[in-house]
């Protein structure tokens, strides 16, 4: 049986801030790639990845605010 551990027990605020920075950089790169992609299928795939990255960034930001680790 798998035991779940709360995220705040695994990661410190700096780890999550580093992750947010990485996601932000990914968002920027996805945006550039979408504008440069010629193939419609590739653009759609990149757009899906962009949407996921934006959602994850939003969720992590909310978590940090909730914990008082980001202001």
Would you kindly provide a written description of the structure presented here, covering whatever features stand out?
The chain starts with 6 loop residues before the first helix and ends with a helix. The protein has one domain. It has 3 helices and no strands. The protein has helices spanning 7-10, 13-36, 40-67. Helices cover 79% and strands 0% of the residues. Helix 2 runs antiparallel to helix 3. The chain is mainly alpha-helical and 71 residues long. The longest helix is centred in the last third of the chain and has 28 residues, at 40-67.
Describe the structure concisely.
The protein has 71 residues and is mostly helical.
Can you tag this structure with a few keywords?
single chain; 71 residues; mainly alpha; 0% strand; elongated
* Total domain modules: 1
Would you tell me the overall average pLDDT?
87
Gap from first CA to last CA? 37 Å
**Strand/helix succession:** HHH
Q: Structural class, from secondary structure content?
A: mainly alpha
Molecular shape? elongated
Portion of residues within helices: over 70%
How many E strands?
A: 0
Low-confidence stretches: none
Beta-strand percentage?
under 5%
Main beta sheet: strand number and arrangement?
none
- Determine the number of helices (DSSP H or I, runs of at least 4 residues): 3
């Amino acid at each position: 049986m798998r035991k779940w551990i709360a995220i705040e027990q695994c990661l410190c605020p700096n780890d999550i801030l580093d992750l947010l920075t990485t996601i932000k950089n990914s968002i920027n790169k996805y945006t550039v790639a979408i504008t440069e992609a010629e193939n419609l299928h590739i653009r759609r795939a990149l757009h899906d990845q962009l949407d996921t990255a934006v959602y994850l960034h939003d969720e992590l930001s909310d978590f940090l605010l909730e914990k008082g680790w980001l202001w």
